[in-house]
Design a protein that fits this description.
The chain is mainly alpha-helical and about 140 residues long. It is built from 8 helices and 3 strands, in the order H-H-H-H-E-H-H-E-E-H-H.
Amino acid sequence: MQPLVADGLLASREVRQPDRTFSLFTWVNDGGIVMDRLIAGCLPEACGLARVPTDITSITGLAQGLNLSRSQLSRKFAAAEAIGSLGWCGPRGKSPLWVSAGFRREYHTAQAVKLAIIDAAFEASVTPTQRGDEMVGAMSESA
């Protein structure tokens, strides 16, 4: 299955050339973790808004424990802020960070593309007989 996933990822334009905000972060060390943290930090009750507040209030706090300096992360945030993908709800560093609905769509689309590639690789690598045997085995274990 792994070679099929690798081929699918390499063949995907969406993976190789992600949308603008996703691209800002994906090509830096721990950029994927930064995006995961931004999206995970979105306040669920505000998810229908154009600007969704997060639980993040500090670039320094976000950069801690990552393979990314505060200054490097600040530059990426400034670039994302310049295109309207994220910003501060009030004074920078003293208020929650928000992410745009567009950035959230970019993130969700990128994740969906990767999961579809993995799903297609799984489907291509497992025969119907194998899948049926796995289901029978799982059902007998749970009984």
